[in-house]
């Protein structure tokens, strides 16, 4: 039987991370909110193991999430984490208490005893704690297998029923041996063999959507970014030409990008692709606008209008697909799948067009997992590894008023910079050129020039929330500067942006 772990979600903040950690050990994991799956459904589904997640509550609160205690007797191994550990203690007849001086937060030294969960883990190591309540008395049949200086029961187990609980968070990297603990739970306790691969995610999704979407018309807004591209190819594999991708080219893309997207999907994947050339529309709306937020708003609204017009031409559409990935879900601060309506990538589309259903096939995946799926699907490397590109495109990289001429100038300078940087094989997470609104005096041949200034930006970052300017080699900057001033008409000066984020943002607008 296929191995799969149920992550039973009690509302904690690391739930997706738990599922991801399980997948890293090559075991399939799915997350279900505790109130969306019954004990009978759990038993029938044939899970290899269950993980109770953390949660923000206290088990004695009236409103706190609980589950049928009989789940502990279902013959399925369970690992309770944080709130999930306390819940297990409570369900099995132990005592959970709260004391001001018992709360622990952050890295904490803990001491373990012999147990399958702690196999190959030193008796003393560091874990990540975040709790006020604690297990004061473990339930009958349970034994304490770890403690800290403050917490008498940092972990417990009932080996006969394969029930394990940890007060700390093994899924975060601050827990030194957390990865090994999860591995022990999966391999030693649940008996998993670890045969799952990302390919299986692809196969499973394709199979599921093929059945679910049979005979339905499905629409997707393709931007050419990693997420929407992966979602598109995945759905295309499942339903072929019933997937209609609309690619709105707003004329604010980088050099050659629109054609590249079209070629990749139309020729490479033989997709049902509609490319809408909206350059004139967008530029006329943007004429004379200099304020960054206003530019964003205009582009967002116009995007919706263009997309809506295309959708209308297609008649009744059953399903809208969005390339939402897990970090977007966190950003929009939403927890429950059913409440998610719109997402910044497509600027609230579902509100203006009627669909029966919105589908987000990548919403449980992290960025690197999405890239892996993309690779499995045979999407070209340069697309899968594409750096982020803002929805409003070059409009936020042309400072001041946007004109076609300025956009073309920026496209050339940007292409040169990216080419030189790539040739130099410099590690940088995002790099681009900005066309500033500044003119300065120069000299070319014997003549005075009065051209524009291009700023180069390259940043090093993990998450784009904070970023450092990349220490580019002088030779790369030199070549880029020399080529841009020589090859791009109207540019007489090139500067390099040496500001980190904060205080600056990555984009200039
Ligand atoms: P900032 O400029 O906020 O950028 O430091 C952080 C990251 O987000 C990208 N970015 C955007 N992406 N729509 C997007 O889809 C936008 O309006 C937008 N603004 C910034 C930016 O390129 C960087 O990777």
* CATH architectural type of the largest domain: 3-Layer(aba) Sandwich
| Approximate shape | globular
- The figure for the number of domains is 3
State which percent range the strand residues make up. 15-25%
**How far is it from the N-terminal to the C-terminal residue, by CA?**
53 Å
Instruction: Please give the share of residues in helix.
Output: 25-40%
Question: How many strand segments?
Answer: 20
- The Rg value, from CA coordinates, equals 27 Å
In CATH, what is the class of the largest domain?
A: Alpha Beta
> How are strands sequenced across the largest beta sheet?
2-1-3-4-11-10-9-6-7
- What is the mean predicted local confidence, pLDDT? 92
- Low-pLDDT regions: 333-347
Largest sheet: 9 strands, mixed
Any key phrases for this structure?
Rossmann fold, 14 helices, 5-stranded parallel sheet, 3 domains, alpha/beta, binds xanthosine-5'-monophosphate, 509 residues, GMP Synthetase, Chain A, domain 3
Describe the structure in your own words.
There is one protein chain. The chain is of the alpha/beta class. Helices cover 32% and strands 24% of the residues. The protein has helices spanning 15-24, 39-45, 83-91, 178-189, 198-212, 226-239, 257-268, 279-286, 292-313, 326-331, 367-376, 381-384, 404-423, 474-487, and strands at 4-9, 28-33, 49-52, 78-81, 95-98, 104-112, 124-131, 133-137, 143-148, 155-158, 163-166, 218-221, 243-249, 272-277, 319-321, 357-359, 430-444, 447-460, 468-469, 491-496. Strands 2-1-3-4-11-10-9-6-7 form a nine-stranded mixed sheet, sandwiched between helices. The protein is globular. Xanthosine-5'-monophosphate (XMP) binds at residues 296, 388, 390-392, 430, 464, 501, 505-507. Residues 296, 388, 390-392, 430, 464, 501, 505-507 line the site of xanthosine-5'-monophosphate.
């Amino acid at each position: 039987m296929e191995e799969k772990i149920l992550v039973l979600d009690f509302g904690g903040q690391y739930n997706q991370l738990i599922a991801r950690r399980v997948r890293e050990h090559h075991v399939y994991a799915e997350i279900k909110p505790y109130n969306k799956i019954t004990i009978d459904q759990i038993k029938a589904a044939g899970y290899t193991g269950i993980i109770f997640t953390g949660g923000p509550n206290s088990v004695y609160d009236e409103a706190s999430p609980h589950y049928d205690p009989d789940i502990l007797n279902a013959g399925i191994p369970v690992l309770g984490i944080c709130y999930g550990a306390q819940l297990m203690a409570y369900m099995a007849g132990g005592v959970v208490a709260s004391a001001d001086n018992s709360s622990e937060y952050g890295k904490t030294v803990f001491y373990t005893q012999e147990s399958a969960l702690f196999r190959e883990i030193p008796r003393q190591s560091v874990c990540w704690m975040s709790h006020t309540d604690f297990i004061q008395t473990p339930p009958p049949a349970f034994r304490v297998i770890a403690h800290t200086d403050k917490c008498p029961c940092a972990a417990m187990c009932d080996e006969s029923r394969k029930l394990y609980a940890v007060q700390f968070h093994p899924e975060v990297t601050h827990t030194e041996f957390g990865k090994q603990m999860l591995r022990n739970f999966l391999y030693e306790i649940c008996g998993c063999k670890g045969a799952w691969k990302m390919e299986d995610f692809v196969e499973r999704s394709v199979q599921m959507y093929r059945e679910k979407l049979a005979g339905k018309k499905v629409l997707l807004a393709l931007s050419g970014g990693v997420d929407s591209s992966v979602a598109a190819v995945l759905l295309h594999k499942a339903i072929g030409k019933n997937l209609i991708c609309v690619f709105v080219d707003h004329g604010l893309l980088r050099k050659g990008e629109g054609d590249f997207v079209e070629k990749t999907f139309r020729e490479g994947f033989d997709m049902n692709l509609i490319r809408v050339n909206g350059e004139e529309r967008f530029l006329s709306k943007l004429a004379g606008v200099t304020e960054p937020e206003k530019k964003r708003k205009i582009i967002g609204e116009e995007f919706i209008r263009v997309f809506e017009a295309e959708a209308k031409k297609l008649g009744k559409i059953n399903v809208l697909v969005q390339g939402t990935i897990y970090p977007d879900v966190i950003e929009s601060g939403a927890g429950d799948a059913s409440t998610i309506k719109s997402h910044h990538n497509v600027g609230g589309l579902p509100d203006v067009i009627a669909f029966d259903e919105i589908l987000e096939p990548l919403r449980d995946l992290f960025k690197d997992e999405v890239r892996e799926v993309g690779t499995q699907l045979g999407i070209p490397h340069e697309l899968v590894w594409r750096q982020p590109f803002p929805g409003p495109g070059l409009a936020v990289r042309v400072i001041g008023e946007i004109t076609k001429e300025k956009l073309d100038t920026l496209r050339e300078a940007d292409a040169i910079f990216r080419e030189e940087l790539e040739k130099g094989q410099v590690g940088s997470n995002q790099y681009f050129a900005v066309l500033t609104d500044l003119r300065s005096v120069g000299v070319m041949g014997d003549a005075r020039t009065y051209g524009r200034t291009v700023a180069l930006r390259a940043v090093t970052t993990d998450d784009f929330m904070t970023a450092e300017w990349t220490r580019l080699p002088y030779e790369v900057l030199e070549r880029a500067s020399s080529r841009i001033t020589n090859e791009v008409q109207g540019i007489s000066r090139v500067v390099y942006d040496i500001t980190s984020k904060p205080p600056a943002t990555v984009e200039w607008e």
